[in-house]
Design a protein that fits this description.
The complex is a heterotrimer of chains A (309), B (269) and C (345).
Chain A (H helix, E strand, L loop, with lengths): L1 H6 L12 H27 L1 E3 L5 E5 L2 H7 E2 L9 E2 L1 H33 L6 H9 L6 H12 L4 H8 L13 H26 L2 H9 L4 H30 L2 H7 L6 H10 L5 H33 L1
Antiparallel strand pairs in A: 1-2, 3-4
Chain B lengths: L13 H23 L15 H8 L3 H35 L6 H13 L2 H14 L6 H25 L4 H8 L4 H30 L2 H6 L7 H10 L4 H30 L1
Chain C lengths: L1 H19 L5 E7 L5 H11 L2 E7 L2 H12 L5 E2 L3 H9 L33 E14 L11 H4 L9 E3 L3 H12 L8 H15 L2 E4 L4 H7 L4 E5 H9 L4 E4 L5 E10 L6 H11 L2 H11 L14 H4 L13 E2 L6 H15 L1
Parallel strand pairs in C: 1-2, 1-3, 5-6, 5-7, 9-10
Antiparallel strand pairs in C: 3-9, 4-7, 4-8, 4-9
Helix pairs in contact in C: 7-13, 8-9
The chains are: A mainly alpha (309), B mainly alpha (269), C alpha/beta (345).
GO biological process, one term (chain C): polyamine transport
Family (chain C): Belongs to the bacterial solute-binding protein PotD/PotF family.
Subcellular location (chain C): Periplasm
């Protein structure tokens, strides 16, 4: 009930219902022309025949999807068996992006909360403190990160000098390095939405709960978290989804020994393979997958809002 | 708000977490700053302190390129962030305050679409698209692509914030004969401010950082900082890139400091 | 908010104004990143009164992808590698240089005048050439290094410390040399053996990195790194105790070439630029900058003397032969693509 009060049953609000078409029109127009049209073109491309070394031939073909799901051996002449290669690549990417999202949440939530509870006039300073590093190019940040984590890098030197460890921890070219890199790439995308939500939170609710002898963790879990859930979800989406398709952190910090979704697709357009329909098909499968996850999110959210309201 | 021992807002462990977060964020940048002062041609060997790479940025053979690239990057980032934040604010108002309507789910999907498509796909598709409508690639094509893919990054914090604002404030204002427009600009927008600023910043840094899409749609002769830097990096990262990065950091810190004092003097008035 | 809008409006106006500048005599070059000295471009502009605009790409395949996505017709010249010249010619992306259109064509060194990838130099002129092999850190390993075993079946000390280029062409060509099989084999047993060999070799490799191929060697993160000769020289000059290997089994040789693109908007200026680059003093400036070889006669006088003794560009007498990366037909290429995917899955 408290959760319902905090989120204000906002889903039901229809204050601007009659203006909504006009409010949405700019977004529809811009995204429709510059994102949806290109994506639809890619959808068409995924069903075309590949032209050798890039490009497409305008003949309908299912070959791209066949390549994704069917394993036909090294020479492509065996009967179709389930192809695990690409499924594994997808699974690995989801796992890495998920771990990076969790890491961002665990560190980003307390940070966002801490910032939102500072006195009002210093909050912008904290917000900027989080985003200043992002003025430096992602590539440079990732390379510097790698430098930090090297076997002979500053981190290991520091840990050894403090006596915490005896020999360097090997971090570069591991999964953990990739997660750390993704975390580093997208942290503000977790912190800022949560901050914007917590900032709005009415702490009288927590006080009321405390007056009713709820302890802090209970208050956090039962009162605060439901109230700032939209911010948390927004943050998770903004970290998880771009992490899925990214390839800079996996390549530089993970050693690129294994394809991630991003590098697999990149290779189809910019690499030796030059298989545009397959790259398009893999993108469409990724898109469908993410779309389903997001819709489940949205539906769940609508449900809790309805139930609470 | 001093509540003595029992501060309802404070959680033990949150401060250390914040500090840890800042350490992780800034440690690599300290490395960048230190190595920008390196006298060596290489970034991995240390050969003493020197400012020659800073001089190189302004007077070296690439200085003109970097100057133009920085100008392009910042103008594009400012315009793209402003336009996309405006579009996202309007869209969020419709999505959160527009009641239930048929196209709501579709609209949500459309808004998050730029997040879901891998950048390289958007890049190739956008290039094909621009070419097929006969649009010459250049500053404008970069700008339009940036506005489009910045929208979800601006939208997410704004809509999250708006969901946390009860519409009773606006209702109360309208009960007191405020028009809808007044309720929006006088009540909702001020309450939305932290969300809008968050969205603006995210859109800004996303635009400032983009390489893949920009590289495909930019056309000949128009560089942004990431495309110019990426070019230099291919031959090995030279300390002048570190110097540029350090100067960008310095500029951002100066801007933040100024805005802090400006806002402070506003408050005291 | 108002100030913000004002700033935005001003920025927009200024940006558009800056964009409007243009000149009549133009040349649009599509080039690799950092591969031509700015001074040389300025010299060309001055000599011919032509405004030079340059755009850059980061791999042969990226160049092809961009041109095929519709960028053809907006550039005058590009600088593809050997096998890419052949591919681009096959795809009809190149214009033919007629007899007599290039005044300095005779300057092309004899051994580069009729290359397999562009017989008779119909579409291209030489730009720079070099090799792709690997460098070994001599502090870590002091045994025999002139063998491809170092990459594919390394000694204990080097296992797990090897960086490969993240490039299908270079890795698979080197692997074929290692096994002594053709680069475009259609023999099923050979292909299966190649696939199996690479799977085993991968266990010895630490990473695939092209962008930081030089850095990992200089910093000591990798003890062996597949690398271009010019990069290998730079890495050594930056202080790492590196030696560039010329394996007995052979190594990869490459040549980048300036090509005349189809539908070049400034075809005349493109030809002027090619003639300009065929003058020994000009192409030597590129060599001195990029540290690779030029394919033009008479450059020796203009070259940095250090280049002549560079161990990376002067193979020992007993070195294997250098080979170009070959262009396979579609069906064969599909198998190699699968092998590469298997390697990185």
């Amino acid at each position: 009930m408290a959760a319902g009060a905090a989120s204000g049953g906002s889903a039901k609000s229809d204050t601007y219902a009659e203006a909504r078409t006009w409010l949405l029109l700019p977004a529809w127009a811009v995204l429709g022309i510059f994102i949806l049209t290109p994506v639809l073109m890619m959808l068409v491309y995924s069903f075309l025949t590949k032209e050798f070394r890039g490009g497409v031939i305008w003949e309908f073909s299912f070959a791209a999807y066949d390549q994704f799901f069917c394993s036909r051996g090294l020479f492509g002449d065996e009967p179709c068996a389930i192809e695990w290669t690409y499924i594994n690549i997808f699974w690995r990417s989801i796992w890495q992006a998920g771990a990076a999202t969790l890491l961002s949440l665990v560190i980003g939530f307390p940070t966002a909360y801490f910032i939102a509870t500072r006195p009002e006039h210093v909050r912008p300073i904290w917000v900027f403190l989080i985003t200043i590093p992002y003025w430096v190019n992602l590539l440079i940040r990732t390379v510097s990160m790698k430098f930090m984590l090297r076997d002979q890098g500053p981190l290991n030197d520091f840990l050894i000098s403090t006596g915490l460890i005896d020999s360097p921890i090997h971090i570069v070219n591991t999964n953990f390095a990739v997660q750390l890199g993704l975390f580093y790439s997208y942290l503000p995308f977790m912190v800022l939405p949560i901050y914007a939500s917590v900032e709005r939170y009415n702490f009288n609710l927590s006080e009321a709960a405390a007056d009713l002898y709820a302890n802090k963790m209970t208050t956090l879990r039962r009162i605060l978290l439901p109230a700032v859930k939209p911010g948390v979800i927004a943050g998770c989406i903004l970290v998880f989804v771009p992490s899925l398709g990214s390839f800079l952190a996996p390549d530089l910090l993970g050693g690129a020994k294994n394809f991630m979704i991003g590098s697999l697709i990149e290779e189809q357009f910019k690499g030796n393979a030059g298989n545009w329909p397959f790259g398009a098909a893999a993108s469409m499968i990724l898109l469908t997958m993410v779309l389903i996850i997001l819709l489940i999110f949205a539906r769940q959210q609508a449900k809790t809002e309805k139930g609470a309201g | 708000m001093a509540r003595g021992k029992y501060d309802i807002k404070a959680f033990p462990g949150f401060l250390p977490m914040t500090i840890l977060c800042l350490v992780i964020l800034y440690a690599p940048l300290v490395v960048v700053t230190i190595y920008s002062l390196n006298d060596s041609n290489s970034i991995t060997n240390w050969e003493g302190v020197s400012f020659r790479w800073y001089a190189d940025v302004f007077t070296g053979p690439e200085s003109e390129k970097f100057k133009v690239a920085a100008w392009n990057s910042f103008t594009i980032a400012i315009i793209a962030a402003t336009v996309s934040t405006t579009i996202a604010t309007l869209a969020a108002t419709a999505m959160v305050r527009g009641g239930t309507f048929k196209l709501r789910t579709v609209s949500f999907g459309l808004i998050s679409l730029p997040l879901m498509v891998p950048e390289i796909v958007t890049a190739v598709a956008t290039l094909i698209f621009f070419n097929s409508i006969g649009f010459t690639r250049g500053y404008l094509t970069i700008l339009m692509a940036h506005i489009a893919f910045c929208i979800p990054f601006a939208y997410m914090p704004i809509s999250a914030r708006m969901q946390g604002i009860e519409d009773s404030y606006e209702q109360a204002a309208m009960d007191l004969y405020a028009t809808k427009r007044q309720a929006f600009t006088r009540i909702l927008l001020p309450l939305m401010w932290p969300g809008i600023i968050s969205g603006y910043i995210l859109a800004f840094i996303i635009s400032l950082d983009d390489f893949i899409i920009t590289n495909f749609v930019k056309g000949a002769g128009v560089e942004t900082l990431p495309t110019a830097i990426f070019g230099s990096v291919k031959q090995g990262i030279k300390p002048n890139i570190m110097a540029i990065s350090t100067m960008l950091l310095a500029v951002s810190i100066i801007m933040v400091t100024i805005s802090y004092f400006v806002s402070k003097s506003d408050n005291t008035k | 908010m108002k100030t913000l809008l004002k700033t935005t409006a001003t920025a927009m106006a200024l940006a558009l104004a800056a964009n409007a500048a243009s000149a009549e005599g133009k040349l649009v070059i599509y080039h690799w990143f950092e591969y031509i000295p700015q001074e040389l471009l300025d010299k060309f502009s001055e000599e011919h009164g032509v405004e030079v605009v340059m755009d850059t790409y980061d791999s042969n395949e990226a160049l092809l992808a961009s041109l095929k996505a519709g960028a053809i017709g907006t550039y005058d010249v590009a600088v593809p590698g050997d096998y890419m010249v052949q591919i681009m010619a096959n795809q009809g992306l190149l214009d033919t240089i007629a007899e007599g259109e290039l005044a300095n064509k005779a300057n092309i060194a004899e051994e580069w005048a009729d290359p397999s990838f562009d017989p008779g130099r119909q579409h291209s002129i030489p730009y720079q050439w070099g090799s792709t092999s690997f460098s070994v850190n001599r502090d870590v390993y002091d045994g025999e290094i002139n063998t491809t075993d170092i990459l594919f079946d390394p000694p204990e000390e080097l296992s797990g410390k090897i960086n490969m280029l993240d490039s299908q062409g270079e890795v698979l060509a080197m692997a074929s040399l290692h096994m002594g099989i053709p680069q475009c084999s259609t023999d099923r047993d050979q292909l299966k053996a190649l696939n199996a060999m690479l799977q085993d070799a991968k266990g010895h490799w630490a990473s695939f990195n092209s962008d930081t191929a030089k850095e990992v060697l200089v910093s000591g993160d990798a003890a062996v790194g597949q690398i271009y000769d010019g990069f290998g020289a730079k890495a050594r000059e930056e202080g790492a105790n590196l030696e560039y290997a010329f394996p007995q089994q052979g190594y990869v040789v490459w040549m980048d070439n300036v090509v005349l693109l189809k539908d070049a908007p400034n075809r005349d200026n493109a030809l002027k630029f090619m003639d300009f680059l065929l003058k020994p003093e000009n192409i030597a400036a590129v060599s001195n900058y990029a540290r690779y070889g030029a394919g033009v006669t008479g450059v020796a006088d203009h070259l940095d003397p250090a280049l002549a003794t560079l161990p990376e560009s002067n193979p020992p007498a007993d070195a294997g032969t250098g080979v170009f990366i070959e262009v396979c037909d579609q069906e064969t290429q599909a198998v190699y693509d699968t092998i590469w995917t298997n390697l990185k899955k």
